[in-house]
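ingest -> validate -> predict -> emit
validate: passed (alphabet ok, no gaps, 328 aa)
predict: started
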Amino acid sequence: MTKPPPAWRLSVAPMLDWTDSACRQFHRRLSRHALLYTEMVTSAALVRGGARHLLRHDPSEQPVALQLGGSDPAELALAARMGADAGYCEINLNVGCPSDRVQSGCFGAVLMKTPALVGECLAAMRAACAAEITVKCRLGVDDQNPEDALPAMLDVARAAGVTRVIVHARKAWLQGLSPKENREVPPLDYDLVQRMLGAYPDLTLCLNGGIATLDQAEALLERGFHGVMIGRAAYHQPAEILGAADRRLFGAPGPDADPVDVARAMIPVIAAHLDRGGRLIGVTRHLLGLFAGRTGARAWRRALSEMPNGTLADYATLLDHLDERRAA
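emit:
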């Protein structure tokens, strides 16, 4: 049997307040092969704050990567070791987030200005654990010339022994634009990242930014990119993106994931969440887009939105109605 392509051929981007464990367990029920990422976790929270609960994940989420934010090599090394010990297959360093909170901590996209420090951080992380170390970066920030800033980042990553880099193909403006605007306003430059494929043939380069459909993903892979990372589209249209990804991008036999079956497969995840004292909405908020683009999508969203304090029985009743409609 032919071995499927590596998981990073398609990954779901780390997204604050979205890609928590419940979200990742949901995404895993749609795709067996895609690589999933945690929300960004700061090295300070783990090392100085003792927030080991931020590393909790379910084994069913694998393959899953931990994204770290930080700029102190020694602290990042300790955090990377903690992540590897917790079972993450990859530890990723965030060099792309432009939010004010991240900037005030001197990490994220602001690190594009200090590639040598990034290299020290990556080398320390690699020395600290056996998990794969990767970096997610921008083309540059502010007035940097991406033709210089991106190669500088790739140079230090390669020198540190990192072999896979995820490039968000936009510059980031650290002043004057919100994080949302930084996802939309600076123009995408896929061509620059593609030129890096030839300049750095020993690196695995995955592309992020502006990818909204599997058709786009397939076209970019055909252009030579080693992998694609999809963020908000995978979250808002999960069945359309992840439900068909195994067949279309990984060569797995069909059929594609059925949204009704996936909704029912989430029952044990919801039950465990409720047993820990969580609210139903803590899981179901991730499922709102499950039927996006399909008949009944609006009714599904309304039904979930109207039961934020609901019970597992309420959710099961909703699924029974779905089964009845499917059988009709």
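The longest helix spans residues 312-327.
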